[in-house]
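Quick one, T. Sequence first:
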Amino acid sequence: MKCQWAARSLVLAFLAFVPRGTEAQLGQRATVDGNSGSTLGQNYPNPVSQETRIPFAIGGAPECADPSKRYRVTLRIYNMLAQLVAVPVMQSGSTGTSGGESAREMLLNCGQYTAYWDGKHSSSGRDVASGIYLYRLEIDGRPLVKKLTVIR
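Structure tokens:
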């Protein structure tokens, strides 16, 4: 009986990270927010052995309807138990974003960006274990979620 409740709890925790609203698949299997036109691309390399990069675009980039609009953006990596593992850092962006800044509560203009994750747990600094992880991009409170695989 306890195992059934544990399994149900795990499923409910996972569903909390699944994006709501319109979602579509495009060219490189990017997840798209139908309201803002923002996309979350597949990380590369995948599977991850040491480090990875996560591409994303905000506000329908490169054809921005309102280039001056700023979006509140957060990118986080979770394990399958919905526990926060890490917050990647920004590597580059089409609007001149400086690299090395944590991708947490950033205000970004419409554009294309890349975040970097070194494959380490943020609290301990150790390499994460092999397994499946979720990365969640939140743009003005609207989530886009994809999975990545770590192989050590």
